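Memo to structure team: turn this sequence into structure tokens by end of day. - J.P.
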Amino acid sequence: AVKELSGGGPPVSEKDLWALVVPALPELHAENQSPLGWEQTDRGGVVTSQPAKGSIVLITGGTGSFGSTVTRQLLAGEVGEVRILSRDEAKQDDMRRWLNDSRARFHVGDVRDPESVADAMHGVDYVFHAAALKQVPSCEFFPLQAVATNVQGS
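Reply from structure team:
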């Protein structure tokens, strides 16, 4: 399946996007283990890495195009829990319904609010930081919000 990412540009397949999410790591450890302790698997000739079985992963901006793709890929593996932190409760509700996976846990919060991030981070093993304002016109019209989210929220 090919998904077009918002913001223009060429369509990107989920396989290609996953290859961008978790680049091949050098073979520094025993076979099937990456330097991060992630399990490496062969997905149709492409070696990818996944967090170790039972890991807890947080995805900020988890309801966006990138975050939702990463969530689906992680849940296809053996992670223990994927926490989705986002401001959009409607998207979270939609995502909860179509994922239909008890390992997906939703947190309404904002990367600009340290307390909501700290609550979601409790006990987390890995973080994908995908929260961002990415539409250039919005960032130009609201530069303080862009800085608050994309710089201070990082």
